[in-house]
Amino acid sequence: MGDTLSIMAGNRDHFFEHPGKGTYPLRQIDLIAPEGSRRRRITSDPLLDNTWSRFSPNGSLVAHEQRRHVKDKVLEYYVVCGRDGANPVEIIRGDKLDEELRVIDSYPSYPYYWVPASYPCWSPDGSRIVACLSNGKWAHGISDKLRFALVFATPGGHFERGIDLEKLGIVFVCEIDWK
Q: Are 146 and 80 a contacting pair, CB within 8 Å?
C-alpha cells in the first residue's frame, strides 16, 4: 500500500491573465501522506500551471501536465520529474506534433493543434508513458472535426509513436489506463 498522495493544488497567490479568457489561478503539484501530514510541493515555479499528476508504477517518478504562458500563448505539454520534483523533462508537447502525429520543430501557426485531454498514463513496467491528446480547444479554428490521439513516449522524453483514434472509430475519450 502506498504512503503518498499526489494533489493538484490551487495557488491563491499566482494567477494568469489571458487576454481573451480572463483570470485563473496557476496550480501546483503537492505530495501528502494519506493522513494529511508531510505536505511537500514538487513543482516550484509559480508562473507555471501544473495539473493531472500520476506516479510511475514504482513511485519514483511523477508525470503531469504543465502549461507555460509565453506572451499571449499557452504552451501545453507533459513533464516527468522525480518524486522530489527534481530533473523535470518535457516528454510530450502538442505544438511539436503535426496533424498526422509526426514530430516537427513547432506547429506553424497558433493556436497549435494537439493539447492534453487526460491524465498521463504509465505502462505497467514504467518504461513508457501514453497520453491522450485532442484538437478540441482548436477544432473550430483548424478543423471542423474533433479528434483524439494516443501518444507514446519514454520518461526521458523520447517520442515513440502516435495513434489517431479516429482511424480506429473512436471519436471521444474520457480516460485511459494501462494494465
A: no
Which residues 6+ apart lie within 8 Å of 122 measured at CB? 54, 55, 56, 57, 63, 128, 129, 178
The pTM of this model reads 0.86
pLDDT, one tens digit per residue, over 76-100 is: 889 999 999 999 999 988 888 888 8
State the first-to-last Cα distance of the chain, in angstroms, to the nearest integer.
18
Domain count, the chain: 1
Amino acid identity, position 89: V
Range of the domain at 19: 5-168
Q: Which residue has 522524453 as its cell numbers?
A: 157
User: Which tens digit of pLDDT belongs to each residue from 127-173?
Assistant: 999 999 998 765 555 556 788 999 999 999 999 999 999 999 998 88
Q: Is residue 178 part of a domain?
A: no
